[in-house]
């Protein structure tokens, strides 16, 4: 039933000029796991999310999504209600509430499907000077794992570039304050040692021009 609703919504929302794109989206929706329609409420049908503190999960590596769901189910990541969207929608469940009801097969199925979708980069308004500071921090500390300026994940390093700024800054702060643990001591210690201004700069950089990374100096 959920698949049919998502399928119908995609078809009705697509103009005739975008018939091919609509058909591709409809086909993807028809093949999606049943819970995708539920996930789309916060993460968007094709992303990005309409909520500023919710990440885009379309196109993320399988392992990143599955590990996130497992961590939420075990209460290993902060469980907070999502901020309301610009339209006034306010989700009433946390990710821990949602993931707690998933077994391994459901987590794996969702991670497999989302991992096969294209990543729809989002761009927030940004401060070029602050983003330039973030670029230097990225080059020095982060590029080794988050390659191509954070837009080409390697070894399940996840996608940073093109995520929403509020989400990025919140995630960084959670690590900085010890509320979120990755099991990667070097990265955790690095972030914990950064100032608030440096965390702001990284979030500014990653949420800047997603399609056109800043030029090399």
Throw out a few tags for this protein:
mainly alpha, 51% helix, disordered N terminus, globular, 11 helices, 1% strand, 217 residues
Give the secondary structure arrangement, pairings included.
Elements: H1 2-13, H2 19-30, H3 36-43, H4 62-73, H5 95-99, H6 104-115, H7 128-142, H8 147-150, E1 152-153, H9 165-176, H10 185-192, H11 196-206
Helix pairs in contact: 1-2, 4-6, 7-11, 9-10, 9-11
What would you note in describing this structure?
The chain has 217 residues and is mainly α. Helices cover 51% and strands 1% of the residues. The chain has 11 helices and 1 strand; from the N terminus they run H-H-H-H-H-H-H-H-E-H-H-H. It has helices at 2-13, 19-30, 36-43, 62-73, 95-99, 104-115, 128-142, 147-150, 165-176, 185-192, 196-206, and one strand at 152-153. Helix 4 packs antiparallel against helix 6 (104-115). The longest helix has 15 residues, at 128-142. The protein starts with a helix and ends in an 11-residue tail after the last helix. The relative contact order is 0.13. Residues 1-17 and 22-26 have low confidence and may be disordered.
